[in-house]
Amino acid sequence: MSALFTPLRLREAELANRIVVSPMCTYSAHDGAAQDWHKVHLGQLAISGAGMLVVEATAIAPEGRITPGCLGLWDERCEAALGDVLSAVRTLSDTHICLQIAHAGRKASSAPPWQGGQLLAAQDGGWPTVAPSALPHRDDEAAPRALAADELDALRERYVATARRALRLGFDSIELHAAHGYLMHQFLSPIANRRTDRYGGSPENRMRFPLEVVAALREVWPAERPMGMRISATDWRADLPEDERWDIADAVAFTRRAAELGLDWIDVSSGGVSPLQKIELKPGYQVAFAERIKREVPIAVMTVGMITEAGQAEEIVATGQADLVALARGMLYDPRWPWHAAAELGASVRVPPQYWRSQPAAHRNLFGPTTFGTR
Fold first, then answer.
1. Residue 332: C-alpha distances to residues 25, 256, 261, 337 (Å)
2. Cβ–Cβ contacts within 10 Å for residue 233, how many?
3. Residue positions annotated with a catalytic role
4. How distant is the alpha carbon of residue 204 from its chain centre?
5. pTM recorded for the entire structure
6. Has residue 373 been placed in a domain?
7. Which pLDDT tens digit goes with each residue over 318-365?
8. Domain ranges, residue 75
9. pLDDT, mean over the chain
C-alpha cells in the first residue's frame, strides 16, 4: 500500500490520505469578503482527492490583511460570505477543510504580487501597519507602529473571535499562521522583534505571545477537532549571529512548547522575515527541517516546498521524514495532482460520481466509492 495514501487520524478527524492542499493567497476578496471566485477556486481543489484542504490566510482584522484583496473573518459580513463559499464546497466534497488564521503585521498593506507586492501608501489604498517593534520589513518602507503591551490582550481576542466564527461556519480544523514574516513570526524572530519587555529579548520572551495565542485558540477550539500551526523553521540568515536570527533549533523548541499546549500538527515552511534571506532552493528544500522536528517532537509534521512528483512525496512519508505533504503551486498548476499520484502509486482517491467515467482504462480501481457530489 502507498504510504502517501494511508489515512491519518488527528483527534477525532481522519484524513483519507497524507496529501494537503497548502493555503495559497489569491488576493480576490472584496474588503475581506469571499466572492464567487473562491467557490470555483476552492471547489476544484476540494474535488482533487487531497486529504486536507487549507483555505488561504484569513485575516483577523482589516489591518491584518496582506493586501486589500485578502480574505478576512472579522465581522458578520465576512462570516456570511465565507459561509456561503463553504456551504457550496461542502456539496462537492467531504474532504477535511481547514482555515488558516492570520495577521500580516508589518507586511500588511501591500499590493498583490501582480502589482509589484510593495507596501501601499495611504493614497494608494494602504493603511498603517503594526508589529512587535517599529522596524520596517525593507529599509525603503515606512516603519510599522510598535504594539504596546496593553494592546496584545485585545489582539489575542481577535484571533479567538475569528476561531469562534470558523467554528460556527463548520470548519474541521484551524491553522495559526506563524510563518513567512507575518505577525507571529515577527514576534519570534529577533530580526523583527527588538522589544525590551516580557515579549522581546530572550527566545522564551519572543515565543511568549505566539504561545499565548496558541493556548487561547486551543481553549475555544473543540477538543475533538484538530488544530495546527505553520512556522518558518529558519530565517535563512546564516550571515547573522545565532542570537540575531530564528533557526531550526528555535523552531524545535517552539514546536515542543506548542505541542504541550494541545497543537496537533506543525506545518513546516521557512523564510519571509528578511528581504536579505539566502534560500537554498532545490526540490524538497524544506523537508530536512520537518524531519528534524518530527524526530524531536511528538507531533504530526507537514512539509511543503518544491514537492512536485508523486514518488518524491511517497518517499517523504514512507521514510518517516514527515507525516503530511502539502502542495501549493503544484496544485494550482494541476488541481488533479492527487488523481495522477494515486494512478502512479497504485492507490485510489474519492471523487464525485460525475467524474467516474474519466477513469483511465489502465487504472480501473483509481476511483473509490463515494456519495458526495450527488446532492
1. 11, 32, 34, 9
2. 27
3. 182
4. 24
5. 0.97
6. no
7. 999 999 999 999 999 999 999 999 999 999 999 999 999 999 989 988
8. 8-368
9. 96
Whole-angstrom CA distances from 323 to 35, 97, 257, 293 are 33, 18, 19, 11
DSSP labels, 309-324: -HHHHHHHHHTTS-SE
User: What total of structural domains would you count in the chain?
Assistant: 1
For 163-219, write each residue's pLDDT tens digit. Answer: 999 999 999 999 999 999 999 999 999 999 999 999 999 999 999 999 999 999 999
- Tell me whether residue 114 is in a domain: yes
Report CA 370 to chain centroid distance, whole Å: 28
Burial class (CB in 10 A: 0-12, 13-18, 19+), 365: exposed
Under 8 Å CB-to-CB from 88, ≥6 apart: which residues?
39, 43
Backbone dihedral angles phi then psi of residue 331, each to the nearest 5 degrees: -75, -30
Q: Is residue 3 part of a domain?
A: no
> Grid coordinates standing for 52?
486536507
Q: What is the CATH number of the domain that holds 262?
A: 3.20.20.70
Whether residue 277 contacts residue 286, with contact meaning beta carbons closer than 8 Å, is answered with no
* HSE-up (13 A, CA, CB side) for residue 137: 27
Rounded to a whole number, what is the largest CA-CA distance in the chain?
Answer: 65
Q: Is residue 274 part of a domain?
A: yes
